[in-house]
């Protein structure tokens, strides 16, 4: 199975929010960071085949990567797209949460998905 290329969503100014969140997480919770990175790597390997408990579908094409460390639930919201004719996954938003993923966070990921759809060259950042 081919590896799915992972991109970070980036704003028009070049800021990649999930990448920045991961950098901060590495400083605050190194083991939590390791778990999130392992989930991202597994997503790259399995793509659409990744399932619970590591990933889940939220709505409108937005999915969540799920990692837990102690009582903290880390979530990275992502979506799939085609870029340059190849399967890609875009890491759109990240958060630490208690219960369900807040609607505002899902909406933020959906807005970013729309921006990528309109202008992928501006909004995709390969790390």
Key structural traits:
alpha+beta; six-stranded mixed beta sheet; globular; 39% helix
Please explain how this structure is put together:
The structure is a single chain. This protein is α+β, with helices and mostly antiparallel strands and 127 residues long. Helix content is 39%, strand content 35%. The protein contains 4 helices and 6 strands. Strands 2-3-4-5-1-6 form a 6-stranded mixed beta sheet. Strand 4 and strand 5 form a beta hairpin. Helix 1 packs across helix 2 (30-46). The chain is globular and about 40 Å long. 31% of the residues are buried.
Concise synopsis of the structure shown:
The chain is an alpha+beta fold. Helices cover 39% and strands 35% of the residues.
Main sheet properties: 6 strands, mixed
Radius of gyration: 14 Å
Helix content: 25-40%
Q: If you average the pLDDT, what whole number results? A: 92
Backbone shape: globular
Continuous helix count = 4
E-strand count: 6
Write the topology of this structure.
Elements (H helix, E strand, L loop, with lengths): L4 E5 L7 H12 L1 H17 L8 E5 L2 E8 L2 E12 L2 E12 L5 H16 L1 H4 E2 L2
Parallel strand pairs: 1-5
Antiparallel strand pairs: 1-6, 2-3, 3-4, 4-5
Helix pairs in contact: 1-2
